[in-house]
Amino acid sequence: MTEPRKKVVVAGASGYIGRNLMKKLVKNHDIIALSRNGDDKEDEPHIHWKSCDLYSLIDAERGLEGADIAVYLVHSMLPSAKLTQGSFEDMDVILADNFAQAAKKQGVQQIIYLSGIVPDDGRPLSPHLRSRLEVEEILGAYGTPVTTIRAGLIVGPSGSSFPILKNLVKRLPFMVLPRWTRTKTQPIALPDVLTTLDKSIDNRELAGKAVDVGGPEVMTYEEMMAKLAAVMNRSPKMIDVPFLTIQLSKLWVRLVTGSPKEMVYPLIESLVHPMIVQEENRVKGLSEGSITFEEAARAALEEEAPKKKGRLKPKFSPIQQDVRSVQRIPLPTGHSADWIAKYYVRWLERVLNPWVKTTVFDASHCRIGVIFNRTPLLELTYAADRSTRDRALYYISGGVLADVDKNERGRLEFRKIPGKNEAIVAIHDYMPSIPWFFYKYTQAKAHLLVMHCFRRHLEKWDTTPPLSFRSHA
Known about the structure:
By secondary structure, this protein is an alpha/beta fold. The chain has 2 domains: 6-309, 3-Layer(aba) Sandwich (Rossmann fold); 323-462, START domain (Alpha-D-Glucose-1,6-Bisphosphate, Chain A, domain 4). It is built from 12 helices and 21 strands. The protein has helices at residues 16-25, 57-63, 88-105, 127-139, 161-171, 190-200, 221-231, 246-257, 261-270, 293-309, 337-352, 436-459; strands at 6-11, 29-35, 47-51, 69-72, 83-85, 110-116, 146-151, 154-155, 174-177, 184-185, 188-189, 210-213, 219-220, 237-240, 323-330, 356-361, 365-370, 378-382, 391-398, 411-416, 422-430. Strands 5-15-21-20-19-18-17-16 form an 8-stranded mixed beta sheet, sandwiched between helices. Strands 3-2-1-4-6-7-12 form a 7-stranded parallel beta sheet, sandwiched between helices.
């Protein structure tokens, strides 16, 4: 008797790894493909597309409904709104936390997460690798078993790292090689990564484990660029330059490749670390890729060539005048996200006194205004049914600074980071009412300044709590 097909959610299904993974998984599984624009895509046999904004917990819960296994391929390097304030690390906290909570609620049996190799070379991790490790911890914070597949540079026709490498080799007649190009790495071909992900599905022996994967060769980035140049029939002159720093390298790589800084900078910062499979994370039959770097590079370039010839102009969705602002703040010991939300409103009035006035009605509605105007600047409505001790959610329901007609999903949330005395304060899908130029250089800047002051205030809390607030602690 044939075993029933497992239902597998793929988050990040429209990315190049997601698209290729679904082709492999669909042979034995039913796929729920999650994408922010899933409704624009056509379903295929055993593949059902869903629109899902993982910045929304309720969207994540709907997206994971009915799933047995969930594959997490999401990363937030690129901006997700017209104006995005905050670091990709803090954005990733929200995405992972929503996904993990939704997986727990929907009874998902396993989360499979594609991450990066986490080196143990004694150096502080780069922001990119530190974020990858933090996401791994958050995904497992609510009890769903997590299998983490850690890979270094993935050699495929799209993605992030390999196209940057290809453009460097393609566009430079001579290559200035900084010290980090002598760092060792273990690239792996995309098909080998897909095979490991496929073998991890419903593999209970991998519950709670991190598995490093790498190709058959360990080489330096300099050697890798030389091999790629040979595959591309190029012979750029390579010059070792020990004084070119990581900071200068970021600017140089961005200029040459044309890649966005949000993608280039975190990746370059990670290149100081050796990205090699570690023995303690090696699993026989899963960790060993069989495709050489030259074979993988040649296949990637051949697959990319016909796409360029037949490339169509991309379709652009109407631009929303939306805002996403995410900041990380300390959370005083023993306090909750719900407490910090209420405290923030009181603190705001104290700091901006006498100009700002806040009014709280029946613990559900809050108005923030100025003393000489009875109309509030912003009105917030507490979502009691969507809030917990560790997450306080307020909808932006009115005020002269909010476009009420377009602000259907605008919200402010305070969220505790699992396992840490830190919280995230985030504004999502906010549609300001004032002209965009004035908003960007007035209200948006003012919000960042206020959050900076609030963070500094909380950093001193555990050592010297402000006297005027001790009674509320």
